[in-house]
Amino acid sequence: MEFIRNFIGTLSLADAFAAFFLLIAIIDPIGNMPMVISLRDKGAKMHPWRVCLFSFLIFITFLVLGDLLMAVFQLQIEYFAIAGGFVIMLLALEMLLDITIFQTTDLGNESSDMIPLAFPMFAGPGSFTAMLSMHAKFSIFSLFVSVLMCVAVLYIFLRGTDWLTKHLGPVSMYIVRKFFGIIAFAISIQLVVGNLVLVFK
Predict the structure, then answer these.
(1) Which domain range does residue 155 map to?
(2) Which phi and psi (to 5°) does residue 29 adopt?
(3) What is the pLDDT of residue 111?
(4) Are 166 and 77 a contacting pair, CB within 8 Å?
(5) Is the dihedral of CA 151, 153, 156, 162 positive or negative?
(6) Which three-class secondary structure string do you get for the chain?
(7) Domain assignment of residue 7, yes or no
(8) Can you give the C-alpha Rg of the chain in angstroms?
(9) How many Cβ atoms sit within 10 Å of the Cβ of residue 61?
(10) Is residue 36 part of a domain?
């Protein structure tokens, strides 16, 4: 019990909110909405609570075991970020060019909840990199609370997907999809090129 009290005592609301604002900007639930709608329109199944649960578990696993996992697989976070950047780039190309790269197959209720929605779209390399860097100055419990807040906000946006589709209309959604496709493509290039520079250094 003493350990639990001490662990909870490390919570800093200021740190938790600072980490939350950084993570939610990287997760970008608003900007990723067109990708979610695009996957759903292609027949992929999407369950908000499953996406959030998978995202939460990935975040917590990486928060607690991130350094160990990287060491076990002999990976540097830069290589992980490059791989995730390429996946995001392919998703962005689908949005921009109206082509199908990811073939969705019916794997049951989890067909798209885990990949690519939970990973790498929401719980992706950008978030992992941010958490690893914040872990150096924020307590694990503060980061845990920030992840809970991010997942709660993500759930609200995922639940509102149908509402957005209904009220914005197909033309508006098409324009938004193209706009955020460019944003996603730019982010993917930044992830790939930025981390390639670090690798070559």
Answers:
(1) 12-22+45-101+110-200
(2) -60, -30
(3) 58
(4) no
(5) negative
(6) CHHHHHHHCCCCHHHHHHHHHHHHHHHCCCCCHHHHHHHHHCCCCCCHHHHHHHHHHHHHHHHHHHHHHHHHCCCCHHHHHHHHHHHHHHHHHHHHHCCCCCCCCCCCCCCCHHHHHHHHHHCCHHHHHHHHHHCCCCCHHHHHHHHHHHHHHHHHHHHCHHHHHHHHHHHHHHHHHHHHHHHHHHHHHHHHHHHHHHHHC
(7) no
(8) 17
(9) 12
(10) no
CA distance 37 to 162: 9
Please indicate whether residue 79 or residue 103 has the higher confidence score (pLDDT).
Answer: 79
Q: What is the pTM of this model?
A: 0.66
Tokens of 43: 């027949």
Other Cβ atoms within 10 Å of 162 Cβ, number: 11
Number of domains in the chain: 1
Contacts of 128 (CB under 8 A, 6+ apart): 62, 66, 77, 80, 81
Asked if the structure places residue 80 within a domain, the reply is yes
Alpha carbons within 13 A on the beta-carbon side of 181 = 19
- Chain-wide mean pLDDT for the chain? 77
| Mean pLDDT, residues 33-44 taken together | 74
Q: In this structure, are residues 32 and 122 in contact, taking their beta carbons and an 8 Å threshold?
A: yes
User: In degrees to the nearest 10, what's the CA dihedral of 6, 8, 10, 13?
Assistant: -160
Whether residue 109 is predicted with pLDDT greater than 50 in this model: the reply is no
In a domain, 4, yes or no: no
